[in-house]
Specification:
2 helices, three-stranded antiparallel beta sheet, Rieske Iron-sulfur Protein, alpha+beta, 153 residues, elongated, six-stranded antiparallel beta sheet, 2 domains
Length: 153
């Protein structure tokens, strides 16, 4: 190895390459701990949502949607949608293509901002590049209460 000095230009070029490599690698490292351990996630306690409460008011009508905390992934909330008068859907906001967080539906379509995947209000793929639906949670509606249970198999 030689003892030559690194020029400012070389230093900046190398620092830029390192920053770029880190920016590309970080999304892949932000995996759920259960996925990296190979163990299934621990079962979650059911979540009851009272539609008479202001925070869940959008779900009182068909087409409404909200995000709630996800016990399995603190960075990607659960999206809950009212799909009909008698049915609701709940699914992870983590896009199955690249893992980006998807927003609430707009005109009954959820569009991932990263690469343009589109999902319906039930979490099913309607346009790629994603080829798997959003990870679904069991969700039921009884009167004015929505109950979210664990991830469906």
């Amino acid at each position: 190895m030689t003892d030559r000095e690194v020029t400012r230009r070389e230093f900046m070029r190398n620092a830029g390459r390192t920053a770029l490599a880190a920016a590309v690698a970080v999304p892949f490292m932000n995996l759920e701990s259960s996925a990296s351990s190979g163990k299934p996630p621990l079962p979650m306690q059911p979540i009851d949502m009272d539609l008479t409460k202001q925070e869940f008011e959008p779900l009182a009508k068909v087409g409404g949607a909200v995000k709630i905390p996800n016990p399995h992934d603190a960075h990607k909330p659960i999206i809950v949608t009212r799909t009909s008068e008698t049915e609701v859907a709940a699914f992870s906001s983590k896009c199955t293509h690249f893992g980006c967080e998807v927003p609430l539906p707009d005109n009954d379509v959820i569009t991932c901002q990263c690469h343009g995947s589109k999902f319906d209000v039930g979490g099913k793929v309607i346009h790629g590049p994603a080829n798997k639906p959003l990870k679904a949670f069991a969700a039921t509606l009884s009167g004015t209460t929505i109950t979210i249970k664990d991830i469906e198999a």
